[in-house]
Amino acid sequence: MLLQLLKSKIHRVKVTRANLNYIGSITIDKDLMDAAGICDWEKVSVVNVTNGNRVETYAIPGERSSGKIELNGAAAHLFAEGDIVIIMAYALLTAEEAASFKPMVVFPDTATNSIVG
Predict the structure, then answer these.
(1) Secondary structure class of 101 (helix, strand, coil)
(2) 77 in helix, strand or coil?
(3) Which of 58, 65, 66, 90 is catalytic?
(4) What's the pTM?
(5) Smallest Cα–Cα separation from 10: which of 41, 55, 42, 47?
């Protein structure tokens, strides 16, 4: 049996753009993706702390150290610039793997979306 567990999380970042005219996804500063262990094109859940909306999409890398968090395509209807979001990725693990697994959690500076210390 496989269990689906939280693999990684970027906790409380600010949306910098909602782009309706892009073909879906979320653009994430590559530094944040690397810190959280989120791969290019990986499926992620995005939870909007500001209004309660939630979407599943895929992550595309944004310019390093840019602070970019951009919801693209249809998701742009549910997120606005300035909203605070949590981005989560999951992994399938065996019960044995899950017993000792710890997710990677990144707590960026919400004002700048930069990695803190």
Answers:
(1) coil
(2) helix
(3) 58
(4) 0.96
(5) 47
